[in-house]
Design a protein that fits this description.
The complex is a heterodimer. Chain A has one domain: Alpha-D-Glucose-1,6-Bisphosphate, Chain A, domain 4 (2-Layer Sandwich). Helices cover about 20% and strands about 40% of the residues of chain A. Chain A has helices spanning about 20-30, 30-35, 125-135, and strands at about 10-15, 40, 50-55, 65-70, 75-85, 85-95, 100-110. In chain A, strand 6 and strand 7 (about 100-110) form a beta hairpin. Chain A is globular, with a radius of gyration of 18 Å. The two termini of chain A are about 35 Å apart. Residues about 110-140 of chain A have low confidence and may be disordered. Chain B has helices spanning about 5-20, 25-35, 40-50, 50-65, 90-115; strands at about 40, 70-75, 75-80. Chain B is elongated. The chains are: A alpha+beta, B alpha+beta.
């Protein structure tokens, strides 16, 4: 078997002019997380299972199933991120800088093709296909 | 032995998918199979509102794009969806890239509003 796609990683980094401890609160206090990310029942405890919930769309219930993997107060946080039949890991790293904090978000585990394990019924492709129609209009 | 397709082959695969899904009747058939599971051509024809030869032709195009798979059982052919074939059309890296950049913006907005 050579059809296993390699795992890919998405990295987003930003220097944010706020203290590490304050950013940590925004990343780990459920009510604050809801304000910038999604509704959730997150708790900063390793092994805690929780959901992020966004607005459902046809074909997708809007639920992201997660488990806390790592908690190092004020510096590192990681949780699994499972939705649409695909599980990835989201890892946050906070590093103090002269003017604030360097925030790094790394999402690992994107696979394509055979490994994607799409579930026809749960994958929000119906919405996606609707958008596709316009694009496909140019093809014979 | 599966080889990694060269760029042109990958584009040909994507073109096939786009074409297969550009027809509303075919999309309806595919959606129906993905949602409700395996169906016979007869059952699909009853729902599709077009003739059986037309349904068979649509299924042939979907099969060619690897969006459906078939198996013969007695006199009936059963079709099922194979939505994994949509994968080349979904670029998760760019979907999530846009998602997280937007959320970073919202995080920064929240931090401005928060007390020290």
């Amino acid at each position: 078997m050579t059809d296993t796609a390699p795992t890919k990683t998405l990295v987003i980094e930003r220097d944010i002019p706020h203290a590490q401890e304050k950013i940590w609160r925004a990343l780990t206090q459920s009510a604050l997380v809801e304000e910038w990310l999604m509704k959730n029942d997150f708790q900063p405890t390793v092994g805690h299972r929780f959901n992020f919930r966004s607005t459902p769309v046809p074909g997708w219930d809007g639920v992201i199933a997660c488990e806390v993997l790592l908690v190092e107060p004020n510096s590192r946080l990681s949780y699994s991120w499972g939705t649409m039949g695909m599980v990835s890991t989201v890892a946050w790293t906070l590093t103090p800088t002269k003017d604030g904090t360097h925030v790094r978000m790394e999402q690992t585990g994107f696979r394509s093709e055979q490994d994607a394990a799409y579930k026809g019924a749960t994958y929000g492709w119906t919405k996606f296909i609707g958008n596709l129609e316009r694009v496909a209009g140019g093809l014979d | 032995m599966v080889m990694i397709p060269p760029m042109q082959a990958a584009q040909a695969i994507a073109d096939n998918l786009f074409k297969a899904l550009s027809d509303p009747t075919r999309r309806a058939i595919f959606e129906h199979l993905a949602r409700d599971g395996e169906q016979t051509v007869h059952a699909l024809t009853a729902r599709a509102g077009v003739s059986q030869p037309a349904v068979s032709k649509h299924l042939g195009i979907l099969k060619n794009a690897k969006l459906v798979r078939d198996r013969r059982e007695g006199r009936e052919t059963h079709y099922r969806a194979h939505p994994q074939s949509l994968a080349p059309l979904v670029d998760w890296m760019s979907v999530y890239g846009a998602f997280w950049r937007d959320r970073f913006d919202q995080l920064e907005n929240l931090l401005k509003r928060m007390d020290q």
